[in-house]
Structure formats: structure tokens, C-alpha cells
Design goal:
229 residues, alpha/beta, 8 strands, 36% helix, globular
Length: 229
């Protein structure tokens, strides 16, 4: 991958994956059930998407709505199945009832992922203390990205936080790349790029006709061109 800004697109199936790739996506986040904000796909769906495209593909590890881990044994089994099917990049993130990172659940998954690269997703936007969360996860293997809007309400509310965190790049806990997503719009890009942010995540923005419709290659291309311009 070149030094251009990273564009990650949510894919639900192989049709989405091909459309996103053709529009210029650099990476996919593979999920199912967007009514629950994205759950883990089956191994069959992963295999079909992996066969359809060769760009990087991060697979969601999440079995229920919300940010509680739920059945950790089931999560570990799903992770092991996906690893066996060839998945080598993941997305996950769990909080305890008091808004702290669920280190027990995350560390159990780390044992299965065995060094695979992974994203801590928007659970960070619901954390009681973002800085403490980052520092508590800093030494976990493979963590190279935080997907965040800067606030639970989305990028409109989180611009100041995103800018502040971008300025801390390289500090302990702030080495992972910030992947901006959650209510992200094209008009946010100038301020985000000026702050030094270089990775962006879209889901609904890639589907102008709504989540019931597939990814639009043209919509993804519009984002690609805006980032490259």
C-alpha cells in the first residue's frame, strides 16, 4: 500500500467487497447484521469474500449488540474458526460495565489471534477514560489501529478529540493509527487531514440508497478522489 490516505469500507458480502475494491478502497471491514452495528460473519462468508478480492480484510469479532463481550468462550471459538479459514486481520473491542476495557476478554482472544493485526473499534468512544484505555492496551500484540469518531455521538461531536489525539501520535498508547469513522462525512475531511489524520472508515456513506442496498462503487470512488485530491 502506498503512502496515500487509507480508505476502509464496511462489506457485508462479496458483492460489497468487489464494489468497494473497484471504487478504490484500500481495506475492508467484514461484518454481518448492521442492525446490531456489525457482528462476526460466518466462516463461509469470510471465505467467499476472501476469494472475491485480494485487498486487506479485517474481520469483526463480536457476537452481540453493545460493547460487552458476552460469551467469551463462543468468541474464542469463532476467532479460532476464522483463523482456520485463513483470516489474519481482525476488529474487536469490549468494555466492562463501568466503561473500562475488558482485558480478560481481549487477552483471551489475543491467545487465538497469535499476533495478527487488529483494530480496537468504536468501543473506545464509549469508554469511561479514553487515555486510560489506550495505555492499558498499549502492550497487546497486533493492535495497530483505533476506529473512533472521537465521541459516542459521531465525528461532529468528536473533532476536537480526534485532533488532540492525532497530536499525541507516538506517545505510549498513541502509537496505533487513528481510523476515523462514525458519522463521517466528506465535509469533515479538510479539518481531519489538516490535523494529520490519514485513515478513514465508511459504511453508510458507501451506500447512498441505505443499508439494504449494496456498496456503490461510485460512492466509494467519490471518497477515494476526495482523499487523493
Amino acid at each position: 500500500m502506498s503512502n496515500r490516505a487509507v480508505l476502509e469500507v464496511i462489506a457485508l458480502d462479496e458483492q460489497d467487497a468487489v464494489a468497494a475494491r473497484n471504487g478504490g478502497a484500500d481495506r475492508l471491514e467484514l461484518v454481518t447484521d448492521m442492525a446490531a452495528d456489525g457482528l462476526s460473519p460466518s466462516t463461509a462468508r469470510f471465505a467467499a469474500v476472501r476469494a472475491a478480492v485480494d485487498i486487506p480484510l479485517r474481520v469483526m469479532l463480536r457476537l452481540n449488540d453493545g460493547f460487552a463481550a458476552g460469551d467469551v468462550d463462543a468468541l474464542v471459538r469463532r476467532a479460532a474458526e476464522l483463523r482456520e479459514a485463513g483470516a489474519d486481520e481482525f476488529v474487536l473491542g469490549f468494555l466492562t460495565a463501568d466503561g473500562a476495557p475488558d482485558l480478560v476478554a481481549v487477552e483471551r482472544l489475543m491467545a487465538v489471534l497469535d499476533g495478527c493485526r487488529w483494530t480496537f473499534h468504536r468501543a473506545i468512544d464509549r469508554a469511561a477514560d479514553r487515555d486510560a484505555l489506550r495505555k492499558s492496551l498499549a502492550d497487546l500484540p497486533g493492535l495497530d489501529t483505533y476506529l473512533t469518531a472521537g465521541a459516542a455521538g459521531g465525528v461532529d461531536d468528536g473533532l476536537a478529540t480526534l485532533t488532540a489525539e492525532a497530536a499525541r501520535t507516538g506517545e505510549p498508547g498513541y502509537e496505533p493509527q487513528i481510523l476515523v469513522g462514525g458519522g463521517l462525512r466528506l465535509d469533515h475531511l479538510p479539518a481531519l487531514r489538516a490535523a494529520g489524520l490519514t485513515a478513514f472508515h465508511i459504511g453508510g456513506a458507501a451506500r447512498p440508497a441505505g443499508w439494504a442496498a449494496p456498496v456503490s462503487t461510485e460512492a466509494v470512488r467519490t471518497w477515494r478522489e476526495a482523499l487523493d485530491g
